[in-house]
Amino acid sequence: MVQVCLNGARTAADGVRVPLSPEAMAASAAEAVAAGATDVHVHPKTPCGHDSLSPRVVAATLEAIRDRVRVPVGVTTGAWAEPDPAARLERVRSWTVLPDHASVNWHEPGAEELAAALIERGVGVEAGIWSGTDGAARFAASPLGPKVLRVLAEVTDTDPASAEASARALLAGIGAAHGRPVLLHGEDGGAWPVLRLAGRRGLATRIGLEDTLLMPDGGGAESNARLVAAGLAEWHAARDTGN
């Protein structure tokens, strides 16, 4: 499984290649799926380009993407989109169009309640476990652990020289992950080293303009589709080398 992460918290300042409108996200998702992505992760945006959990914004984004692709589509529930835990929970409960899955960052306040509400509504939960946080410990003790769709192991170390070691430490901290599948990915300078580790470990991964604006050779990424194609090639090449 290779998930495409279309945009993340990036803005227009990151260039026109980052899709911000529902139409642009849908077009980018279609190209990425054609390039081999089997799942989509997206940050719905307001017209001003800010991440939003608004029912109207989420619905418009999901409907546009689903008009173009037939793979699962998930959204963020990051606290930066709605800092107040109670308000964030209310937003999710008021969604009129549901994603196939949603990421919940386990170190953020209100994560357990938010994940429970999503599961109750039939939405798969990606348990976001970030390196450098207490997310792994919290998740290990969570009664919801066996009920999540998968664990999203997020390596926040952006140094290409140390990101792989950070990823190995994160995986060790996550341990058995309540028996759930693990998707491993990095960001910025750590994106490609961590993706290669995912290949060697045979783990699901993701790539896209949320995680990096650069190709493996250091050149600028023109699109999510180009990143997905390169990501698949890098994953398979690493897989052939083993652990």
TrEMBL record:
Superkingdom of source: Bacteria
Pfam name, any one: BKACE
Identification of the protein by name: 3-keto-5-aminohexanoate cleavage protein
Higher taxonomy: Bacteria, Bacillati, Actinomycetota, Actinomycetes, Kitasatosporales
